[in-house]
Amino acid sequence: MGNIVMFTIFAAVIVISALLCVTTTRIMRAATYMLFVLLGVAGIYFLLDYTYLGAAQIAVYAGGVTMIFVFAIQLVSKRSLQGLEERVKASKMVSGGLAAFAGLLVVSLILFKTGYFTIAPTNTELPMKEIGVALVGAGKYQYVLPFEFISIFLLACIIGGLVIARKEEKQ
């Protein structure tokens, strides 16, 4: 019973924070709400006794949100940090909502067409050792090399963002 209550609390925190994150117009508040979403997901990992994934979630993503704060302060103008920039128009919100609904419809149709919902799982219990080996292994169907390539790509994006932001200030 306690697990259900805790899951409900974590789920509510995640959903409410996610909605606030995408609807706020202030970047610092959006980053803070995103931090609550990520901490809620870590709480669900801890609830499932996946302590390694929960700790990794907190260490990696909480650090990532801290970096978002730093880059938001450095890259965004003072007026937009104070919320004085132009508001999102209703037409853009409607078109974004329609695009999101179309994406949801396409994914749902693909899942139904492939029979994803009708296939009964045979073995739902995955040992943590297999997950750990898959995450840090360098062999076939293991994820350390793609993770490293993505981290280098994200670093290049951050450096590119800094270069672009500094060029705009000079003009």
What string, H for helix and E for strand, traces the elements in order? Answer: HHHHHHH
Largest sheet report:
none
State Rg: 20 Å
> Could you tell me the number of beta strands?
0
Our estimate of the beta-strand percent is under 5%
How much helical structure, as a percent, in the residues? Answer: over 70%
**Mean pLDDT metric:** 80
Weakly predicted, low-confidence segments: none
Computed structural class: mainly alpha
Tally of DSSP helical segments = 7
Termini gap: 61 Å
Gross morphology is globular
Notes on the protein architecture:
This protein is an all-alpha fold and 171 residues long. It contains 7 helices and no strands. 4% of the residues are buried. The mean pLDDT is 80.
Architecture blueprint of SSEs:
Layout: H1 2-23, H2 27-47, H3 51-75, H4 78-81, H5 90-113, H6 128-136, H7 144-170
Helix pairs in contact: 1-2, 2-3
Brief descriptors of the model:
171 residues; mainly alpha; 7 helices; 0% strand; globular
Give a short summary of the structure.
It contains seven helices and no strands.
